[in-house]
From TrEMBL:
<dbReference type="Pfam" id="PF01244">
    <property type="entry name" value="Peptidase_M19"/>
</dbReference>
<keyword id="KW-0378">Hydrolase</keyword>
<keyword id="KW-0732">Signal</keyword>
<dbReference type="InterPro" id="IPR032466">
    <property type="entry name" value="Metal_Hydrolase"/>
</dbReference>
<dbReference type="GO" id="GO:0006508">
    <property type="term" value="P:proteolysis"/>
</dbReference>
<feature type="signal peptide">
    <location>
        <begin position="1"/>
        <end position="22"/>
    </location>
</feature>
<dbReference type="InterPro" id="IPR008257">
    <property type="entry name" value="Pept_M19"/>
</dbReference>
<keyword id="KW-0224">Dipeptidase</keyword>
<protein>
    <submittedName>
        <fullName>Membrane dipeptidase</fullName>
        <ecNumber>3.4.13.19</ecNumber>
    </submittedName>
</protein>
<dbReference type="GO" id="GO:0070573">
    <property type="term" value="F:metallodipeptidase activity"/>
</dbReference>
<keyword id="KW-0645">Protease</keyword>
């Protein structure tokens, strides 16, 4: 089982229901929040849902709740007032051999193709967005917004010039690295530690080319030294598509207050995530790990190979393990602790939402996108204005995209003879 699969299994367990008290909202609060959210443009910056597009039995237009593999589909997007967001091309980090680089290259192109095939199959429901202004236009047309992002630039190692092709095909957000170091950058979580002390020379060249094309850079999953390189190097703001606060939980994937302030000063945005293992210490025991490994063996396939029907069995199996071996569950209270801290440190103009749906995100009391108005209800309860909430739900992120695209257009115009 890959590190990604193990991490996903942990987070799936953290999304199962819990009996402990958690924050509650009145029906009136939720109704008000839902009404507002349906009116606003509501985007999530990190949707791993394309990882489901190849699964036997998955249909984006059908509801797949009560399933450990699926948190996002069209019916639940409508219910939760999610207009869309950034749909990720994710590639698991290989062993960095020549063979692995070619595999990563092909895997990235295949995932891009799957996203484009989904769009082609449902033109009345989903639409590709290419500019910051496209999202509002697509929402006004009654469709869901699909920006394309890339989580982990390993598909570009074999041939970095493919970035221009990805851009032509719709790529608008790019992260350099994931769980382990690659040829472009150091990861926040590689057990071997730093290799490049930030961006590698190839990583710097990749970032420069992305900026030239108007692609927004995403620092999530990269080491703090990469953040420092981006602050020094970038002529435009960048984002963290799904990260949280190190001051609340000292995890290497989270960002400290000093860097949060640097990000805001540079005009960037942090999209707060709901990946339980980054919000709290789950105190996972060896017995729990063994039980989960045995469950996967019983299902007879790895995470990526599961059908959507096996996702139902996986959910039931995890719930049965919960009865035998306790595991602390991340809740909205934990998410709001990070969310509020970051809002207090940098202000609502530099905060957004990237909950890592279908990639390990979700909470015991926020298991899928159908319940997103709970976040809006909390923001209203805290006294944030409609303008501020609109920024948090997508406006701030689109402002960064507009700056990136304006800069690219200016550079291109200056380069013309």
């Amino acid at each position: 089982m890959t590190l990604r699969s193990l991490s996903l299994l942990v987070s799936l367990a953290l999304c199962t229901p819990l009996a402990a008290h958690a924050i509650e909202f009145t029906p009136q609060e939720l109704a008000r929040a839902s009404t507002l959210q349906h009116r606003l443009l509501t985007l999530d910056s990190h949707l791993d849902t394309p990882a489901n597009f190849h699964r036997d039995g998955f249909d984006i237009t059908q509801r797949h709740d009560h399933n450990a593999l699926s948190q996002v589909d069209y019916p639940r997007m409508v219910e939760g007032a999610l207009d869309g967001g950034f749909w990720a091309i994710y590639t698991d980090q290989g062993d960095r051999s020549a063979q692995a680089h070619q595999h990563d290259r092909d895997a990235g192109l295949l995932r891009l193709t799957e996203i484009r095939e989904m769009l082609a199959a449902h033109p009345d429901t989903f639409q590709l967005a290419l500019t910051a202004a496209d999202a509002a236009r697509i929402k006004a047309a009654g469709k869901r917004v699909v920006y394309i992002s890339m989580e982990n630039a390993s598909p570009l190692v074999d041939d970095p010039t493919l970035l221009s092709y990805y851009h032509l095909a719709g790529l608008r957000l790019l992260s350099t690295v994931h769980f382990a170091n690659n040829e472009f950058a150091d990861s926040a979580t590689d057990p071997k530690g730093a290799e490049w002390k930030g961006l590698s020379p190839a990583g710097k060249a990749l970032v420069d080319e992305a900026v030239r094309l108007g692609i927004v850079i995403d620092q999530s999953h990269a080491a703090d030294a990469v953040f420092d390189d981006l602050i020094e190097r970038m002529p435009v703001p960048f984002v963290l598509s799904h990260s949280s606060a190190k001051a609340i939980y000292n995890h290497p994937r989270n960002l400290d207050d000093a860097r949060l302030k640097q990000l805001a000063k540079a005009g960037g945005v942090i999209q707060v995530n709901a990946y339980g293992g980054y919000l709290i210490d789950t105190a996972k025991s060896e017995a729990r790990k063994a039980a989960e490994t045995a469950l996967m063996a019983q299902l007879g396939t790895d995470y990526d190979g599961m059908s959507i029907q096996q996702g139902v069995a996986l959910k039931k199996g995890l719930e049965e393990i919960d009865q035998r071996i306790a595991l602390r569950k991340a809740t909205l209270d934990d998410f709001f602790a990070h969310f509020e801290h970051i809002l207090n440190v940098v202000g609502p103009e530099h905060v957004g939402i990237g909950l890592d749906w279908d990639g390990g995100g979700g909470l015991a009391d926020l298991p899928d996108v159908s319940q997103l108005p709970k976040i809006t209800a909390w923001l209203l309860r805290k006294g944030y204005s409609e303008k501020q909430i609109a920024g948090i739900w997508g406006g701030n992120l689109l402002r960064v995209m507009q700056q990136a695209q304006d800069h690219a257009a200016k550079v291109a115009a200056a380069a013309k003879p």
